[in-house]
Design goal:
The chain is of the alpha/beta class. The protein folds into two domains: 2-119, Rossmann fold; 127-221, Arc Repressor Mutant, subunit A. It has helices at residues 10-22, 33-42, 59-68, 84-92, 105-119, 153-164, 172-178, 190-202, and strands spanning 2-6, 26-30, 47-51, 75-79, 97-100, 127-130, 133-136, 141-144, 147-149, 211-214, 218-221.
Length: 224
């Protein structure tokens, strides 16, 4: 899943982001409400985790603005404010769940899963399909033409990103930021190496290639 974390306490943010990444998720983070709102309105997320007390714009206003713009991503509020009135305000602002600090990380993961399950029937994709290639986001298994493909974690994330943007050109910058979480170009061939390995796994031995290089632009996955 792709998760947005909006938390101004950098130590708490680092703990949360690292834990989510270790659990296999793609994570974007922001340290203030305005930056968090900008990310929320600019990228598709499966879940947003938002602190109540944030600089520049508090969490209640961030979520209220998201809802005003038609953004329906499930939101889990994190807050040291634990009174019933505080939790009610969070839910009325558009939050879907409310977890007080300090919290157990395993409980946070369980609540995220519950939010996604609640949303899954109508809006959350649990499987991506391009041609005869299926990618199950829950079991993390790729299958092409009935043949299971063994993917390393980074290859899975790369394939997931490409399939989420099927038919679109995906640039090196997009891959560096979303799959490798670099906000600079490391000036290495890391993307080319991983794309080459992925292409060998999903295309070699099959009738038609799915992963294409768009010269001077980037990559695209498409059928036909």
């Amino acid at each position: 899943m792709r998760i947005l974390v909006v938390e101004d306490d950098l130590e708490a943010q680092r703990y949360l982001v690292n834990g989510l990444k270790e659990a296999g998720h793609i994570v974007d983070d922001a340290a203030d409400g305005e930056a968090g709102l900008t990310l929320a309105l600019s990228h598709p997320y499966d879940v947003a985790i938002v602190d109540r007390m944030l600089p520049k714009m508090d969490g209640l206003n961030v979520v209220a603005e998201m809802r005003e713009h038609g953004n329906s991503v499930p939101v889990l509020f994190l807050s040291a404010l634990s009174e019933v009135d505080d939790r009610v305000k969070g839910l009325k602002a558009g939050g879907d769940d409310y977890l007080t600090k300090p919290y157990a990380f395993v409980e946070l993961l369980a609540r995220i899963d519950a939010l996604v399950r609640r949303r899954a029937p109508s809006t959350v994709k649990t499987k991506l399909i391009v041609g005869d290639l299926d990618l199950d986001l829950l079991t993390r298994i790729a299958v092409r033409a009935g043949q299971t493909i063994d993917l390393q974690p980074r290859e899975f994330r790369l394939l997931e990103y490409l399939m989420r943007h099927a038919g679109q050109v995906v640039t090196r910058t997009m891959l560096l930021e979303s799959v490798w979480e670099y906000h600079f170009d490391p000036q290495t061939n890391v993307i080319d190496v991983h794309v080459s390995r992925l292409r060998a796994k999903i295309d070699k031995g099959f009738d038609a290639p799915l992963l294409h290089t768009v010269r001077g632009a980037g990559y695209m996955i498409r059928a036909n």
